[in-house]
Design a protein that fits this description.
InterPro entries: FAR, FAR_C, FAR_NAD-bd, NAD(P)-bd_dom_sf. The chain is α/β, with parallel strands linked by helices. Helices cover 52% and strands 11% of the residues. Helix 9 links the parallel strand 4 and strand 5. The protein starts with a helix and ends with a helix.
Length: 520
Amino acid sequence: MHCTLLRCLKTLCVCVCVLTHPGFVLSSCDMESSRLMEFLKGKSILVTGSTGFLAKIFVEKVMRVQPDVKRLFLLVRAADASSAEQRVQSEIIGKELFKVVKDKHGDGFHSFVSSKLFPVAGDIVQQNLGIPDSNIREKLWQEVDIVVNVAATTSFDERYDVALGVNVLGAKHVLEFAKQCVKLQVLLHVSTAYVAGEQRGLILEKRFRMGEALKGDRYLDIEGELMLVDERRRQLGAHNATKEAEARAMKELGINRARLFGWSNTYVYTKAMGEMLLGELRGNLPLVILRPTIITSIHRDPVPGWIEGTRTIDSLIMGYVKGKITCFFGDPETVADMIPADMVVNAMIATMAAHSRQPSEFIYHMSSSVRNPVQYSTLQQCGFRYFHENPRVGKDGRVIKTKKLPVFRNMFVFRVYMTLRYKLPLEGLHLVNLLSCGRFARRYDELNRKYKFAMHLVDLYEPYAFFKGCFDDLNLERLRTAMGKDDAGAGMFDFDPKHIDWKDYFYSIHIPGVLKYACK
């Protein structure tokens, strides 16, 4: 109900805020939608995390709408230039995502690609982005106009040392490298809206202060966290810990530190720290931080439904398809704040064009929960309808009957169910194993491991199944207003969630896309 009220208030507020928001300046010539293509013309762009899902869509979009872009430098984790080139060819250009660009250029596609894409071997966890060749570094510093940082590790329970290296120090290294670029117009950093933690109500687009924590009066000392990780690794080494034990200890440390300071998992916690460093150290460098919510498959172009990897909600779809999920937990009326990947990319282009050469920090939520909210129940209903009309077939060739699974709205009841359905039978098997002198040890260990892993996932995802916040997107609404009503341009760079028919999107685009591209 509070989200409905907020939508009504936004209509009144947007016109006032365009004029009164401090430090918010839009260049009308840049933000006419027809000028976004012109903004990209002749630009040299450095993209980190270029083999990732979102970065690929960004690269394809730029190449498709503005063939006169000067150069796209793609930072790739690789040992050398040859290995970087191979990764770009196989993991980026070779994807179906580039079908439209290939068809457009025909036999000249490969020459077009070689003239526009420049793979760079490196790694953001290292200074100078791990680029060993001083000539290449100098070339980038002299030529790059825009830096787009999409690199991140997104696992909720990533090793703490790894997450700190990529999401925190990586952001710092990208900023330091950007400061060396003599022609730099803007640094665009892609974060996540869930750096806000488990807030309720309207969540504003505001920056983090250095050391700001979400719980109590704690001060988050980033340098201290780095030292803590180093000390923990030394302790594990002194005890000759195995690689598995070290990984487990580092994952537990990340989750524990995140929750100590008020975040639910290591991913959002370290992304928040990355934002803090960027805001604190940027000086007068133009900085845009874009915070998408749950990113889903492509809505419109170039390939509707295209997706790569397992996004948050897609784990549920795939688990349902494979029969590995027997129930759900969460409030079906909870707003599932999702946004298609192509809209995120369009917002990336619009925001970096809007703030080119503006020496300030700008924060944007790319969200749908206020302007066009959709509930988890809608996804559930669309999934049931899709699989009812398109039945799954098992390995034995038999049709798998589609049935509605129980949904637990109360976590206490859910945990009781899991105990009765799985934990108690496990304990019975454990007893039988002891009485039979270990005859069922392997089976018990396997099932017990799966149960613990399932409950670990439940622990990670519970905050989002009952999330009660709405992400304000007033800053992006200003951009949409500034872009005007050029229908052709708005279609090419559309990032308005109101244009999404969620039921049609789930049924006709997203679920088929997950089955085709992600459910292997």
